[in-house]
Structures are given as C-alpha cells and as structure tokens.
Design a protein that fits this description.
This protein is α/β, with parallel strands linked by helices and 126 residues long. The chain contains five helices and five strands.
Length: 126
C-alpha cells in the first residue's frame, strides 16, 4: 500500500516546518512554493491532505470576487482531488475571513498561528 500524499504550499517564511511529523505519521510529503505550482501538482497527483497558508485579499488583488489566495486553488481541488483534506494556516486577525471562505468551500481544519506540532497531529489524525 502506498503512503498517503501530503502537499504543503509554502508561500511565506512563516509556514511551520512539520516535515519530521509528516514523516513520523507516514506521509509522502511534497511541497511547492506557489499556488501556480500547487495547481500543476494536483492536476498530476491527487493529494490526500493539503496544508496551505491563508492570506486575505486586503488590497483585493484577487480580482474582486475571491476572498483569499486559496479560493481558486480550492475550486480546482474540487475538480482534481475532491477527496483531499485541506488544512488552512491562518493568522488571528484573518481568522474571520478564513471562516467565511470555510462556509463556501469547507476545509478539513483551520490552525491558527502559532501552530504547534500537537495541533497539526490532531488535524492529521482526524
């Protein structure tokens, strides 16, 4: 049986490094550094989990209809990997916006910074 695939989308230096945890839990951990690369990845390989940072579109540089950096990716995920469980990492001031997106496209879980290893372990175990 193959290992479950976990995709990390690392778009900032603040993204926590849980590589050791992912290895201990038996994941095939892959990571990319942009949403464009993440979209390319899921078109080829359907991950079981996705861990991504949530960034609210304050300047609304997301074409006016999207809430955050995750919207387009989440809609694409529905097509290419509908079984994937998304864990959004969010800063406290942006939590309300992440919750609003969660109402439109449900996440598997939300982890608020500072994210502890135990938080991530709980989300990956549920």
């Amino acid at each position: 049986m193959s290992k479950p695939i976990l995709l990390s989308i690392v778009e900032s230096r603040g993204h926590p490094d849980f590589c050791d945890l992912y290895d201990r839990l038996g994941f095939d951990h892959q990571w990319v550094t942009s949403m464009r690369k993440a979209l390319g990845f899921v078109k080829k390989t359907a991950p079981d989990y996705v861990v991504a940072e949530f960034f609210y579109g304050y300047g609304n540089n997301y074409a006016g209809v999207n809430i955050s950096n995750l919207d387009v990716f989440l809609y694409s995920l529905e097509k290419y990997a509908p079984q994937a469980k998304v864990i959004a990492l969010v800063q406290k001031p942006e939590r309300q916006h992440a919750d609003r997106l969660n109402e439109i496209i449900p996440y598997h879980g939300i982890a608020q910074y500072p994210v502890r290893e135990s938080d991530m372990k709980n989300l990956l175990g549920s």
